[in-house]
Amino acid sequence: MDRYLVFGHPVRHSKSPFIHTLFARQTQQELEYGLAEPAVDEFAQALRTFFDQGGKGCNVTVPFKEQAFTLVDRLSPRAKRAGAVNTIKLTDDGVLLGDNTDGAGLVADLKSHGVMLADSRILLLGAGGAARGALAPLLAEPPSELVIANRTHAKAQQLAAEFCDLGHVTAQTYEQLAGSFDLVINSTSASLQGELPPLAPALIHTDIAIYDMMYGASDTAFIRWAKQHGARQTMDGLGMLVEQAAEAFTVWRGIRPGTKQVLRELKRNLGVI
Ligand code: ATR
To answer: Is the whole model's pTM more than 0.85, yes or no?
Structure first.
């Protein structure tokens, strides 16, 4: 049977096996999908061993995405832009192809929630790997303006400069942010420490859409905060997780699974509904 897995550390709580097993059942593809948690300095060897032993493809998650970028034979244009690889496919001619489906997953999830991206004014919080992966797919829509704000302003400036050939993208400090945004995307890891990005409450209004790439069984700290200040449309990163997986599955199997039912089952599994 064709073998796939996700590499990460830690990875025990990954929902990817659950999601891909449902995709395989739905599309009647015969495959198995597992987990691998190599020591941080043993990822390269573990990856090589997996493909030497007949593996067909894998997902890569924290902290290996940047390393995977350097280990594959060929990169898709979107992986090159993202500077990170979350999906690897062994092609029929034996080439390890590195791809990145995270940004496409984000955009697909935003659209499935009815969020209009074309001509919108978007605020992206954070300038780490998650922000980098989202930029090209977001700018392709294209928004009228995309502003990046980051605690370390120089990193936001660098990202804006790197992507300015793809659209109207600027960097501002949290203090500089002004005017009305249609969509705020939180790509920071602040929630992991139970913290909030230092965003002025005045930027939140009833018609704004709020997206947090993090997710949990209950609202993230950022979503709770946004609701308190009047945001009516809030979304967490669970849908992005399922959509990036669907995109990876399509890369591997050439068949696109439906995501709605799988997302519902995942929510049930997590105790969200
Ligand atoms: P990832 O790959 O998930 O993006 P990362 O590269 O470590 O992870 O980036 C984390 C992002 O969250 C960074 O933009 C970080 O800001 P700094 O560049 O200033 O470190 C941001 N971040 C983390 N904790 C934060 C907090 N408490 N408030 C605001 N931003 C925070």
So the answer is: yes
**Which pLDDT score, from 0 to 100, does residue 193 have?**
87
Nearest to 204 by CA among 179, 221, 176: 179
Whether the predicted pLDDT of 272 surpasses 90: no
CB 38 within 8 A of CB 90: no
Residue 61 Cβ inside 6 Å of ligand 1? The answer reads no
Ligand 1 centre from 96 Cα, in Å? Answer: 30
**Residue 127 CA to ligand 1 centre (angstroms):** 7
Answer whether 197 contacts ligand 1 (Cβ < 6 A).
yes
Tell me if 187 CB under 6 Å of ligand 1. yes
Choosing from 65, 80, 111, 155, which is the catalytic residue?
65
For the stretch 74-122, pLDDT in tens is: 999 999 999 999 999 999 999 999 999 999 999 999 999 999 999 999 9
232 CB neighbour count, 10 Å cutoff: 12
Tell me how far apart the alpha carbons of residues 215 and 217 are, in angstroms, rounded to a whole number.
Answer: 7
Is the minimum distance from the CB of 191 to ligand 1 under 6 angstroms? Answer: no
Joined together, the tokens standing for residue 20 give 């891909």
